[in-house]
Amino acid sequence: MSLEIKKTILNKIKEYQKIIISRHVRPDGDCIGGTKGLKEIIQETYPEKDVYLVNSDYSEYLAFLGGEDEQFEDEFYADALVIVLDTASVDRISNKKFNLGKEVIKIDHHIDIKPYGDISWVEDWRSSLCEMIVDFYLTFKDELKLNKDGATYLYTGMVTDSGRFRHATVTGETMRLAGTLLDQGINMDWLHSNLKMEEYDYLIFKAHALQSIKITENGVAYIHVDKAMQERFNLSREDSSASISFCENIKGSLIWIAFIDNADGSIRVRLRSRFVTCNDIGESFRGGGHECACGATLYSYDEIDKLLAVADEKLKEYKGSHEGWL
Ligand code: AMP
User: Fold this and answer.
1) Is 105 within 8 Å of 83 (Cβ atoms)?
2) Residues spanned by CATH 3.10.310.30 within the chain?
3) Where in the chain is the domain with CATH 3.90.1640.10?
């Protein structure tokens, strides 16, 4: 089944002269790595094709991988194939003109709640979207070409979205696919230094933020990066968002959440869990995502309390009916 879809996608790539690749808003390593990696594969294999990365936002954290293209006029899309990567639903597509393309292909590893596109290839068990792109490359490796830059982009997506290959979604195949990329000679030291190193000022914020973490009765750890904290430490959107990782390793906290005030008054929720599935919590607050990594949007501080109550109850039930959790 998936071979048929992959063949169809390859034929579409061959058919079109102009290909525009897009991704989700608030980009992460997987969607940036996936779009840049796929572009590299297409361009290396078919140098005569015109391939563009068009989106409306940007990641400072991942700027070391290089930039994307500017937006084009509407007419530019009429004869283009648009490929959208790593984006579950239309509202989260960063390129708002994606639908002007002659045909749209969706390739994703999120649960397919809101399908879109003329062709759709979704494998929600994959630890990253980049894993799918490497699988695509290997399926047609007699035909497609992968260079060191492409391998570096795709490895960035694999390593970041899998929590450095620690998540439960990581399989033997994940590691074999990653191995294919390493065979291209990726500079691991350079890549991991770029992913890991932090500004000194950021450490000062982190020290403060760690002290603000709270834990509910049954163990849900949470942090609220409100406007005041953002102003005090001059935080970018990405700085604030990264606070979810501060709550990650607290014993007994199998669910952890970051609430981040948005400029428009809404509150972004980043929800993570181990062992317990939590995407239903995200879905009941206008969001969604993976079983153990999802998001939501809230419109008042009251809703923070409501969401915490739901998460706390869920963790209570889990702990009451399971053994062996940490
Ligand atoms: P994040 O915390 O933003 O890294 O999101 C974790 C996962 O949940 C990502 O794979 C997103 O695709 C998904 N997600 C985050 N926010 C939302 C939302 N509001 N609606 C649907 N999915 C979301």
Assistant:
1) yes
2) 201-321
3) 2-195
Q: Inform me whether the pLDDT recorded for 31 exceeds 80.
A: yes
Which CATH number describes the domain made up of 201-321?
3.10.310.30
Query: DSSP 3-state assignment of 114?
Result: coil
Residue owning tokens 């140098």: 47
Residue nearest to atom 6 of ligand 1 (CA): 294
Q: What DSSP letter does each residue of 176-234 carry, written as one string?
A: HHHHHHHTT---HHHHHHHHH---HHHHHHHHHHHHH-EE-TT--EEEEE-HHHHHHTT
Q: Residue 13: name the closest of 115, 131, 140, 157 by CA.
A: 140
- What values do phi and psi take at 94, rounded to 5? -70, -35
At 210, the pLDDT band (50, 70, 90 cuts) reads very high
What average pLDDT does this structure show over 133-138? 98
Name residues contacting ligand 1 (CB within 6 A). 88, 110, 270, 287-290, 293-297
Topology adopted by domain 2-195: inorganic pyrophosphatase (n-terminal core) (3.90.1640)
Residue at token pair 């079109």: 16
241 DSSP 8-state letter: H
Q: Whose CA is nearest to atom 20 of ligand 1?
A: 287
Q: How many angstroms does the Cα of residue 319 sit away from the middle of ligand 1?
A: 25
Candidates 143, 187, 145, 164; CA nearest to 38 is 145
pLDDT digit string, tens, across residues 81-129: 999 999 999 999 999 999 999 999 999 999 998 899 999 999 999 999 9
Give Cα 178 distance to the centre of its chain. 17
DSSP-assigned letter for residue 289 = E
pTM of the full structure: 0.94
